[in-house]
Design brief:
The complex is a heterodimer of chains A (about 160) and B (about 140).
Chain A (H helix, E strand, L loop, with lengths): L35 H24 L4 H18 L20 H25 L3 H21 L10
Chain B lengths: L2 H24 L7 H27 L20 H25 L2 H20 L17
Helix pairs in contact in B: 1-2, 1-3, 2-4, 3-4
Classes of the chains: A mainly alpha (about 160), B mainly alpha (about 140).
């Protein structure tokens, strides 16, 4: 499998200082091979979560302003990880089926985001690469923030 | 940097955070700003527990826990509730960054603990008026 992880994720070595901003392509090195499986699992979870968001937005367009920031974060997270996964390994999730009711659609999104968070946490703890673990920890923190925001008062309006 | 070094750096950061939370709490009126007072108190308690756990982890790693400084620099002009809330939010952002460094440098239960605490601090920022982020604790991953 091609493991050309992009940008800061691949900065070599164990130095925990943030990688330089000006030349992110410098010092690229693949993560340990044992991390391949977990990266694929996290990418699959991200793709699945994004498909649920898309389905929820289609089912309840009113949710778009609430869900758009979550989708933007997923896209950014995929942008960092997807380069590590060969095209053949990129999952094609089954289309999510979401009821056209706001409360049910939101509940489905929350469940989906929680599954994603669980997967990202698993990957973070299991990663052989410390740099990859750091990236996944930031993704987990972001996912938790968005999940909390989805449970906030703005999301609470009932009805279809 | 070793795991012990990263633990010590995180502990030093927690000493400063605890001091800062104490000052922010002291500048907050429980009567006039009860919600903020409660939020800062909860933050203080969490960071105190975090400091205590870190001291144990440092000892488990064979180290002598780094001591707190007598005092830390803090902006004396922070007096309004909004300023205090923002200062606490900034403190939590710095904590996320430090804890992510510990995640990178550790494995197993220490990494899992750091991940949990980093997530807590990131989510805490929402309570302190901030919005969700794409790369909390890893600003270099943000793309323009």
């Amino acid at each position: 499998m091609a493991l050309a992880l992009v940008a800061p994720l691949v900065v070599a070595g164990c130095d925990i200082d943030p990688p330089p901003r000006d030349d992110p392509s410098a010092d690229q090195a693949p993560p340990p091979p044992e991390d391949s499986e977990l990266v694929i699992a996290v990418v699959a979870a991200l793709v699945r979560a994004r498909s649920v968001l898309e389905a929820a937005t289609l089912a309840v367009p009113d949710l778009t302003p609430l869900l758009e920031p979550v989708a933007t974060a997923h896209t950014a997270h995929l942008g960092v990880l997807a380069g590590a996964v060969a095209d053949a390994d990129l999952p094609a999730p089954a289309p999510a089926r979401i009821a056209a009711r706001r409360d049910r659609a939101l509940a489905a999104v929350r469940r989906s985001e929680q599954r994603l968070l669980d997967e990202v946490r698993r990957g973070c703890v299991a990663a052989a690469s410390g740099d990859l673990a750091r990236v996944l920890a930031s993704m987990a923190a972001s996912t938790a923030q968005h999940g909390t925001a989805l449970a906030g008062p703005q999301s609470g309006r009932e009805g279809p | 940097m070793t795991v012990l070094d990263a633990l010590q750096a995180t502990l030093a950061d927690e000493h400063a955070a605890l001091y800062t939370y104490g000052v922010l709490g002291a500048r907050t009126s429980q009567a006039a700003s009860p919600a903020l007072y409660e939020t800062l108190t909860a933050g203080y308690r969490r960071h105190r527990a975090r400091r205590d756990e870190l001291q144990l982890m440092v000892r488990d790693a064979g180290g002598d826990p780094v001591a707190a400084e007598p005092a830390y620099d803090l902006d004396g002009s922070l007096l309004r509730p909004a300023q205090l809330e923002r200062a606490a939010a900034d403190l939590e952002a710095a904590s996320v960054e430090q804890l992510l460094a510990l995640v990178a440098q550790s494995t197993g239960s220490v990494r899992e603990w750091a991940l949990t605490e980093a997530t807590w601090s990131a989510v805490r920022r929402l309570t302190l008026g901030e919005g969700p982020e794409t790369w909390p604790g890893a600003p270099e991953l943000e793309r323009p």
